[in-house]
Amino acid sequence: MSDYTIERVKTGIPGLDELIEGGFPKGDTILIAGKAGTGKSILATQFIYKGVTEYNEPGVFVTLEESPILIKRNMLRFGMDLEKLEKEGKISIVDLSPSKEATPATIGEYPSFDLSGLQAIIMNHIKKINATRVVLDTLSIMAYKFRSRDILREEFFRLAANITRTGCTLLITSEIPAQETGLGVFDIEAFLASGVIVLYNEKISDTSRSRSIEVLKLRGSKHSSRIHSMRITDEGIRVWPGEISPGS
Amino acid sequence: MKTEPTESEADDSNMIEVVFFKSDSCAFCPRAEEVIRETINDFGLDTFKLVIINVSENPEAAEEYGIFALPTVMIGGVSITGIPEPEMLMKMVLGAKVMTKKKGES
What is the value of ipTM here, to two decimals? Predict the structure, then answer.
């Protein structure tokens, strides 16, 4: 084994770094997959927020689903004031949610397009605040915006490669449809990322559910192969590395 | 909104605005622009105001309108993505004309 060590980006999620050799490999694409309500967006937002407050690393949060107003409101209950960081120029929240009024209604799509628009928007924000962390929340929404899945698949690879080429670590969230066992709606999610984290909120009895987290893969890292307990606390997501989920 | 020079700088209050989003790296954009220009020419240039937005130079405009995919053409609040068929553009133009007429009557 060589002594070469991969530069790590600390996640800001208490307990998670212990499972992944100290953080995500810098410049990698990491997929955060899970069914609805498992905490994907909270984890991704916490990664951006703590990136600034604990490690002084500016971040870009691209929302394709929830409006920035709701994201800011929801994160305030964990004591995370995104508005303040935005005003200080430490983070950018890029609103590409369906709630935008100026967005024209798409009435047609021909299979001859690329995602260079989305790329230009994200790159502009990375440059503006010298970001080193980028979140795209959520990839799954693209399946409903565009019909041409083959183009999207190819374009996701290009987009992720161009973002990470700048040195940014990219987190992409993916919603696993209720009855499915894969990692998302595109079937390529696992290939797209060099790391995959799966979140669960499984029913363990008639009256309770249990949250847990699994590091499914993380290239270049010796990671835990267990499913660990995770909770959404008053301060955001926390992982218990020494605690194995009761559901696993 | 920063844009490239338009086809007409004359009084354009009654003209239909055709907004074309493109980028430097988009391989399909030149052909899409050709189709749009040809269709506009068929209708008559004095009916349209063509606004070309190069997203590579003006990413803020793409963000403002939530345009991810290129080429995209927007006419009267609706858009199509990819190299458009002239028939589809015609439909959009006719739809925009009806809207403009309704606005003028109200």
Answer: 0.89
- Where residue A7 falls among pLDDT bands split at 50, 70, 90? very high
Residue range of the domain that includes B43:
16-89+100-105
| Residue A1 pLDDT | 57
Q: How many CA atoms lie within 13 A of A197 on its CB side?
A: 29
With the CA atoms of A19, A21, A27 and A29 taken in that order, what torsion angle do they form, in degrees rounded to the nearest 10? -30
Check residue A135 and give its pLDDT: 98
Burial string for A9-40 (b: 16+ CB within 10 Å, else e) reads: bbbbbbbbbebbbbbbbebbbbbbbbbeebbb
Any idea what the CATH number is for the domain that residue A72 is in? Answer: 3.40.50.300
pLDDT digits (tens, 9 = 90+) for A118-167: 999 999 999 999 999 999 999 999 988 899 988 998 999 999 999 999 99
DSSP helix/strand/coil, B81:
strand
Distance from the B52 Cα atom to the nearest Cα atom in chain A, whole angstroms: 14
Residue to mutate among B68, B72, B87, B93, with most A CBs inside 10 A, is: B68
User: Tell me, what DSSP letter sits at residue B7?
Assistant: S
How far A114 CA lies from chain B's nearest CA (Å)?
A: 5
Residue B3 forms part of a structural domain: no
Question: Which pLDDT band, with edges at 50, 70 and 90, does B2 fall under?
Answer: very low
Helix axes of A40-53 and A68-76: crossing angle, nearest 10 degrees = 70
The DSSP symbol for B85 reads -
Range of the structural domain that residue A66 is part of: 8-100+113-178+189-244
Nearest-CA neighbor of A94 among B6, B12, B67? B67
Please tell me the distance in Å from B39's CA to the nearest CA on chain A: 17
* Inter-chain CB proximity B65 and A105 less than 8 Å: no
pLDDT computed for residue B13 by the predictor:
67
Report the distance separating Cα B73 and Cα B90, nearest Å: 12
Amino acid at A19: L
Contact A96 B69 (CB under 8 A): no
- Whether B2 is covered by a domain: the verdict is no
